[in-house]
C-alpha cells in the first residue's frame, strides 16, 4: 500500500511538473501564429524565447515516473505532444535572422497542431487538457466538461480522420462533439486551409470553438497543393461529397452550415460558396483575395440575403485589407447580408479570436438558404 501511494505521488508530481508548462507553451505557439508579421519576426521570437525550458526540464522526470502499463498510452501521448512543442521552439529559434524567416516560422508552427492532435485524446480523463480545448468562457462550465467526458468513448464522436493522412490530398478530418445528440439537428462548420496547407492541421484552428458550442467541424484537404482558384474546379464536387457523407451519417442542421477559410481557403469559400448549387447557408472568408467578378458570376437568387462574415487584417501583406472592403461592398450591393470585421493588428495570419465572433454571428443569424 505504501509503495502504491509512493508511485501515485511520483506520478502526480511528474504530471504537475510537465502538464501546466506544456499547455502554456502550446498557448504561446498560438500567440506566435496570431502575432506573426514579417517586420516583427525577430522581436517575436525573442519575446517567446525560453517558454519551452520548463517543458524540457520536466520531460525526463515525467518519462521516468513509475507509470503503470494501463497508463502507457496517456504517458506516450503527452510525451509526443511535448516533443512536438520542443521541436517547434527549436525551429523558431533557428528561424531568427534566417534568409527566409517567414517560411521557417511557418514550418516551425506546423508542430503546434501535431501537439494538439497527440494530446487531445487524454482530455477525457485530464480536466486541465479538456479545459485547454474549450474557449475561455466555457472552461469553468462543469456541466460542459462532464458531458464531453461522458461521451468520449463513443465511436461516432471526437476526432475522425477520413483518408487524410499527412502527405495525402483530397480527404478530410472532422470533429463531432462528444455530447452529440442524434435527435437534435447540429450546426456544422467547414474550414478550408490556406495555400499548401492541410485539413489535418486546420482542424485545430477551429476545434476549440466547435467543441465549446456543440458544433460539427469538417476540415477538408484540397485535391491539389491549393484550392482550385484557376482552371478546372477539382474541389467543389469533392467538398459537396464530403458534406453529403457527413449529413448522411450525422444529424446536421440544414439551416446552419458555415463555410469558412483562410487565405486561399477564404478565396475558395467565395468561389465555391457563391455557386447556385452550394449547400452552405453561411460564408465567412478570412484574409482572402476577392475580385468583383466573383459576385457578378453568382446569381441574384444565391446572393440575396446570404449571410456573409468577412474578416481581414489591416497589416495583411499578401492581400491588402481594401480587398475585404471591396468584397463587403460588392456582396452587399448584390443583396447579401454582410458583416465586415477589419482587425487593426492582424497580419496575414489566422485570427483565432475572430472564431468566437463568427460563431456568435453564425448561430444567431437566420438563413433563407436551406
The general outline is globular
Going across the biggest sheet, name each strand in turn.
1-2-4-3-5-6-7-8
So what's the CATH class of the largest domain?
Alpha Beta
Beta-strand content bin:
5-15%
Description:
This protein has 370 residues and is α/β, with parallel strands linked by helices. It folds into 2 domains: 2-113; 155-364, Alpha/Beta hydrolase fold, catalytic domain (Rossmann fold, 3-Layer(aba) Sandwich). Helix content is 49%, strand content 14%. The chain has 15 helices and 8 strands. The protein has helices at residues 2-35, 41-48, 53-64, 72-95, 101-109, 111-119, 127-132, 142-150, 199-212, 236-249, 264-273, 292-297, 300-303, 322-333, 354-364, and strands at residues 158-162, 172-176, 186-192, 216-220, 252-262, 282-286, 307-313, 337-343. It has an 8-stranded mixed β-sheet with strand order 1-2-4-3-5-6-7-8, with helices on both faces. Strand 5, helix 11 and strand 6 form a beta-alpha-beta unit. Helix 4 (72-95) runs antiparallel to helix 5 (101-109). It is globular and about 70 Å long.
Amino acid at each position: 500500500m505504501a509503495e502504491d501511494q509512493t508511485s501515485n505521488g511520483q506520478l502526480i508530481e511528474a504530471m504537475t511538473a510537465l502538464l501546466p508548462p506544456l499547455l502554456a507553451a502550446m498557448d504561446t505557439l498560438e500567440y506566435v501564429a496570431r502575432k506573426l508579421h514579417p517586420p516583427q519576426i525577430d522581436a517575436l521570437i525573442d519575446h517567446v524565447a525560453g517558454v519551452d525550458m520548463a517543458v524540457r526540464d520536466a520531460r525526463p522526470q515525467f518519462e521516468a515516473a513509475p507509470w503503470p502499463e494501463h497508463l502507457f498510452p496517456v504517458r506516450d501521448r503527452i510525451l509526443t505532444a511535448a516533443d512536438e512543442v520542443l521541436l517547434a521552439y527549436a525551429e523558431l529559434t533557428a528561424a531568427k535572422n534566417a534568409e527566409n524567416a517567414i517560411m521557417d516560422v511557418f514550418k516551425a508552427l506546423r508542430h503546434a497542431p501535431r501537439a494538439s492532435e497527440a494530446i487531445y485524446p487524454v482530455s477525457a480523463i485530464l480536466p486541465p487538457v479538456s479545459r485547454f480545448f474549450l474557449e475561455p468562457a466555457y472552461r469553468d462550465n462543469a456541466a460542459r466538461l462532464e458531458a464531453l467526458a461522458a461521451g468520449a468513448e463513443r465511436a461516432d464522436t471526437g476526432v475522425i480522420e477520413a483518408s487524410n493522412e499527412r502527405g495525402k490530398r483530397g480527404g478530410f478530418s472532422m470533429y463531432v462533439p462528444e455530447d452529440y445528440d442524434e435527435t437534435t439537428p447540429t450546426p456544422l462548420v467547414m474550414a478550408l486551409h490556406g495555400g499548401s496547407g492541410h485539413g489535418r492541421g486546420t482542424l485545430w484552428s477551429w476545434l476549440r470553438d466547435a467543441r465549446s458550442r456543440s458544433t460539427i467541424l469538417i476540415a477538408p484537404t484540397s485535391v491539389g497543393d491549393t484550392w482550385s482558384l484557376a482552371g478546372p474546379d477539382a474541389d467543389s464536387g469533392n467538398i459537396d461529397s464530403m458534406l453529403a457523407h457527413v449529413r448522411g451519417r450525422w444529424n446536421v442542421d440544414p439551416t446552419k452550415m458555415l463555410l469558412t477559410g483562410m487565405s486561399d481557403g477564404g478565396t475558395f469559400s467565395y468561389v465555391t460558396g457563391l455557386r447556385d448549387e452550394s449547400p452552405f447557408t453561411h460564408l465567412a472568408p478570412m484574409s482572402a483575395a476577392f475580385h468583383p467578378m466573383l459576385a457578378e458570376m453568382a446569381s441574384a437568387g444565391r446572393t440575396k440575403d446570404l449571410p456573409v462574415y468577412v474578416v481581414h487584417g489591416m497589416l495583411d501583406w499578401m492581400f491588402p485589407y481594401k480587398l475585404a472592403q471591396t468584397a463587403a461592398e460588392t456582396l452587399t450591393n448584390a443583396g447579401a447580408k454582410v458583416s465586415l470585421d477589419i482587425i487593426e493588428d492582424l497580419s496575414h495570419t489566422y485570427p483565432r479570436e475572430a472564431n468566437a465572433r463568427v460563431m456568435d454571428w453564425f448561430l444567431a443569424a437566420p438563413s433563407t438558404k436551406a
